[in-house]
Design brief:
single chain; mainly beta; 5 domains; 11-stranded mixed beta sheet; 9-stranded mixed beta sheet; 61 strands; 2% helix; 45% strand; elongated
């Protein structure tokens, strides 16, 4: 027998891959574990064997032993050949020719397998890392590939002449070698494939990072090893070369173990950092270096070097930036993912070279989503079987887009609705060149509306973020001409539409200056001669959020929230800022856009023609009175609560309910409960910061009589069986509390002479009155 061995120097490129949400398992082999396959491979003139392997340790039995990945058994009736026909393995320690820890690919030739050729890689296969190993034979040359790199070529014909490939039909082992050579694997195998022809390097590179179907041309055997349990493995090719674990069918001590695998999925990040830092990649990986690498960005990653990739996926939590002066080249797929948990983000401060990209946008079912195209030349066909609308400011109406070829203009907003009847929750794909550079849009303000006072939709223009990244509304690189500084976005509360607003660092319903990738939103043009708006690359940011988040950061503000018994709510904000007026200030105020009629609406208004979601005034003091309007979505019980900033800590906070003639101390009690009907007058409340000129001694609509006698507060409950009294001074400080029972109740105040507020709480009502103690 001739044994011909060859050495090649090879710089190892390290890979390790993650499942990334895909169901994937592999087999882990311990000492003398095995898989038996009833297998035959007769008449082959070419072949390719490829598999992923992750070694725990090297076999240390010396001689020519090692860690076999697969071994085709020989015919035991013939003894003139080696113990295998084909073998793919990693050699162990103490190899007699010094090829320790190297990949080896061995074939036998001749009708009885008398000639053996074993080719070795030259460099070591590292432990505890996934590596892709492939061996090919094309009738003349044997070639070895590690992680897609060609590391050795050997001309068989020059050494042996023309000899047939020996193809015994005695079956195959995975992870094991015949007892005579004591070869065994301690480690894992995944995604093992045998082809009936010699695969080219480009074919190996194109498919090593992905699972195949088993129906590909030339595939002879494919074990993806995704069974995950049981005593069998199943061939996904049409040949059906299934196998069983261990020495016999059924469980035994030689069975390898199933476990979750991280092959053959691409490189993926696990933390924020620079692309070329190995520690940002999954355990066992180095920064990708091969031009055919496929990567998935799950974190905030910066690329500060020129890089070429076969495929890149920016995951739903991924934020990828190509830094200035550097180039990213993507030869094949470029995908930015989106799902219910979030949307990926990409910023090209440098240069990108690619043919096209796909940007996904997730749409939950049965609600409007405000969107904008992140690619050039997109059409309405992106939204096939999805309702799509555009807004027309001159007519102040929505129009449905029914054509599938209508262009989706850059920076224009659209409303999309994925209905349960057609698609349910779905993801749409924008495919084309990514938007980058400057974008501008003309704005209009057309008179002639017949809307109710305070609800004039004139001047609202529907625009959108044109980029596959977030943008900062407060960035100085915007150009805003004749446009207010507030933005308005859609949000949903328990399936009901509501509008969030943001202006000058303050917001309602969680809006912020950070506008998410391809998000649509409203702005208001404030001049009948028209206006314009321009956005540039310098405004782009990674938002790190699904849609938008809250930034209430002013020193003095009050945020009022009104909520019904079902949890539907609305918000408004009053804040104090120097230079503001009681009239509308385009740089500081946000108007009120009303949501679904089922949701309660709360807003402020100093003049009947304007209603505010965010109302900024010059100052707040004890004499300030702020009109607060309220509309009930449905008749029922509501709760009014507040949040405030420390700058207003010295002032009390009252809400005056004009319908009930009740002055309620919000700071002392936290929330005011009241009943309302859908047809009530909206002019119901006032926000006050002192008792002011309200002069009454007992509450209205309560069975409680309140008066002072002998410096005690007397509360007489006429109908209620029990209740609670709380006594406050006029600054809002709680003085005392007392339990109440039906009849007369005496409360010792033990305080100085003066006016006090008495809050009476019964199961039927909550009311407040003022008393004077002398």
């Amino acid at each position: 027998m001739k044994n011909i061995y060859f050495l090649v120097l090879y710089c190892l490129i390290l890979l390790s891959f993650s499942v990334n949400g895909q169901s994937n398992t592999a087999l882990h082999f311990n000492y003398k574990d095995k898989v038996n396959v009833d297998y035959e491979m007769i008449g082959f003139t070419e072949l390719t064997v490829e598999s992923w392997v992750n070694l725990d340790r090297y076999n240390s039995l010396g001689n020519a032993t090692g860690s076999p990945i697969m071994m085709q058994k020989t015919d035991p009736a013939i003894t003139s050949h080696n113990d295998y026909g084909i073998i793919l393995m990693v050699l162990g320690l103490g190899h007699y020719q010094g090829h320790d820890k190297q990949m080896a690919f061995g074939l036998n030739f001749g009708s009885t397998g008398i000639y053996h050729v074993g080719v070795h890689s030259g460099d070591t296969i590292r432990l505890n890392e996934w590596h892709h190993l492939a061996g090919t034979y094309d009738g003349t040359y044997m070639k070895l590939y590690i992680d897609g790199e060609l590391v050795k070529t050997f001309n068989v014909v020059d050494s042996l002449g023309v000899q047939p490939l020996y193809s015994p039909n005695s079956g195959m082992y995975l992870g094991y070698r015949d007892e005579g050579q004591y070869g065994y694997l301690e480690g894992a195998i995944d995604d093992l494939r045998i082809w009936n022809y010699a695969r080219s390097q480009s074919e190996i590179q194109a498919n090593m990072y992905r699972e195949i179907t088993g129906n590909e041309s030339g595939i002879y055997t494919y074990w993806d090893l995704n069974e995950g349990s049981g005593d069998q493995i199943f061939d996904k090719s049409s040949n059906g070369f299934d196998g069983f674990l261990g020495s016999s069918e059924g469980a035994d001590v030689r069975d390898p173990d199933w476990f979750s695998s991280t092959a053959p999925i691409p490189y993926y990040t696990i933390t924020d950092g620079n692309y070329d830092s190995s520690w940002v990649w999954a355990s066992g990986q180095l920064a990708p270096m091969n031009d055919w690498a496929q990567v998935k960005i799950n974190d905030n990653i910066n690329l500060a070097a020129d890089e070429t990739l076969s495929k890149i996926i920016i995951g739903t939590t991924g934020e990828f930036t190509v830094d200035n002066t550097y180039t990213l080249t993507v030869d094949d797929d470029f995908l930015i993912e989106s799902d219910a948990t979030g949307t990926g983000s990409f910023i090209d401060d440098g240069t990108i070279s690619y043919s096209s990209a796909t940007v996904q946008r997730y749409l939950s079912e049965d609600q409007w989503h405000y969107v904008s195209s992140p690619v050039t030349d997109a059409t309405s066909g992106v939204f096939t079987s999805i309702y799509l609308r555009s807004w027309d400011e001159p007519t102040e109406t929505w129009s449905y887009i029914t054509s599938t070829t209508a262009p989706l203009n850059e920076m224009q907003g659209y409303a999309a609705w994925a209905s349960t009847a057609y698609t349910g929750a779905t993801t749409v794909d924008f495919t084309g060149l990514l938007n980058t550079g400057n974008y501008s849009m003309s704005l209009s303000n057309t008179t002639g509306t017949s809307a109710p006072p305070g609800e004039d939709p004139t001047g609202y223009n529907f625009i959108g973020n044109p980029y596959p990244s977030g943008i900062d509304w407060d960035d100085a690189n915007w150009t805003k001409t004749n446009v207010d500084d507030a933005i308005y976005m859609i949000t949903y509360i328990m399936g009901n539409r509501q509008y969030a607003s943001y202006v000058d660092g303050i917001s309602t319903h969680g809006a912020t200056n950070e506008i998410a990738p391809h998000q649509g939103f409203f702005v208001k043009c404030n001049n009948t001669s028209g206006g314009s708006i321009q956005v540039t690359n310098n405004t782009r940011i990674h938002t790190g959020q699904e849609l938008f988040k809250s930034t209430l950061n002013d020193e003095q503000y009050i945020k009022l929230t009104v909520k019904d018994a079902n949890g539907l709510y609305d918000e408004m904000v009053i804040r104090a800022k120097e230079g503001a007026t009681v009239s509308f200030d385009g740089l500081m105020d946000a108007l009120k856009l009303k949501g679904s009629t089922e949701i309660p609406q709360i807003y402020s208004s100093f003049e009947p023609e304007t209603i505010y979601s965010i109302n900024t005034i010059d100052h707040i003091n004890s004499n300030t009175v702020i009109p607060v309007k309220f509309e009930a979505g449905i008749s029922g019980i509501y709760e009014l609560s507040f949040k405030t900033k420390d700058g207003l800590a010295s002032l009390p906070l009252f809400v005056y309910d004009k319908k009930e003639a009740v002055l309620f101390n919000l700071k002392a009690s936290g929330a005011y409960k009241f009943t309302a009907s859908a047809d009530d007058d909206p002019n119901r409340f006032e926000l006050r910061f002192s008792y002011g000129d309200l002069q009454y001694e007992e509450s209205i609509n309560t069975d409680a009589m309140v008066f002072v006698k002998n410096q005690q507060v007397v509360v007489s409950l006429e109908e209620s069986e029990f209740g609670e009294a709380r006594v406050f001074d006029l600054s809002g400080r709680l003085i005392t509390t007392a339990n109440l029972f039906k009849g007369t109740n005496m409360i010792d105040v033990n305080s100085m002479n003066g006016y006090y507020l008495v809050e009476i709480i019964t199961p039927e009502n909550i009311t407040t009155c003022k008393v004077f103690i002398n």
